[in-house]
Each structure stands twice: as C-alpha cells, then as structure tokens.
Design a protein that fits this description.
The chain is built from two helices and six strands. With 154 residues, the protein is α+β, with helices and mostly antiparallel strands. A five-stranded mixed barrel has the order 1-2-3-5-4. Strand 5 and strand 6 form a beta hairpin.
C-alpha cells in the first residue's frame, strides 16, 4: 500500500514537471506546412499570351495542368495545379492575354510559376489558397461566392 502511494506521488510530481514544458510550446514553435514552399510574400504578377494549355503535364514537368505563356521576359511555365482550371480552361485558349499571380519556384530543374490567381479580362480564376493549397471544385465555388459578396476582392 505504501509503495503504491509513493508511486502515485512520484507519477504526480513527474506530470507536474512535464505539463508546464508542454504548455510552453506555442503555435509559433510549430512549423506550418506550405505546399511546395508557397509564401505569399514572394508573389509576383506576370502577364502574357497563352501559347498552350496542357491538361496533363508531359514528362519532366510538375504534375497537373499547365498554362504556357509568352511574356516580355520569354516563355513561362505556369502550374495551375492538379485540378487545373476545369471547364474554365476552354475560355483560356491560345492567344488569350492573361495575368497570373503566384510564386516562382524551381521544380524538377525548371522555373515554374505556381499560380494562385489567373485573370482573363474581367474573369478571375482562383487556383490556390493564400497558403498555396490547390482549391477543390467545391472550394472554388465557395470562394467565388464569397468574392462576389465582397465585391470581387480576393
């Protein structure tokens, strides 16, 4: 009986020592996962003419759909994610002028713009969240509804 009591006291003391250390860890101490290192502070906006829309990436490219653009700086590979632009891809054909906002990354030894927003005239296509996560079709619909209610702000 005495050894059980001593064991209980020892366990309680141990817990009292561990719990404050666990509680001391803040959210800032916990790393957050960012797909492909997406960092919104590094976003750029690039305009150019669409030379091709690839619904499936060829060998050597990052998986998913791609827009190939001709810009003032040269050819640019734009990743529009694994879900791509869906039915909207039909509107973004060769020769169309688009503005793409995203983050440049080197993937598979190639420069790629990870698109978050693609604009064609007054039409806005959301591709990723501000954290770089590719939006699902349901999330896209929800985001479009929210943007319409907020006056189109992204």
């Amino acid at each position: 009986m005495k050894s059980l009591r001593e064991l209980s006291v020892a366990a309680l003391l141990l817990l009292m020592m561990i719990v404050p250390r666990l509680r001391a860890q803040t959210e800032a101490d916990v790393p957050t996962a960012k797909p492909l290192g997406y960092d919104i502070t590094e976003e750029v906006t690039v305009s150019g003419a669409v030379t091709a829309f690839l619904s499936k990436a060829p060998k050597g490219m990052v998986g998913g759909s791609h827009l190939l653009l001709s810009t003032a700086e040269g050819a640019l590979d734009v990743s529009v994610g694994t879900l791509g632009l869906g039915k909207q891809a039909l509107a973004i054909g060769a020769g169309k002028i688009v503005a793409v906002t995203g983050v440049m990354r080197t993937l598979n030894d190639r420069q790629v713009l990870l698109a978050r927003v693609v604009k064609l005239g007054n039409q806005v296509y959301l591709i990723r969240t501000k954290q770089g996560i590719v939006l699902s079709p349901l999330a896209l619909k929800h985001a479009a509804n929210e943007a319409a209610q907020d006056g189109g702000a992204l």
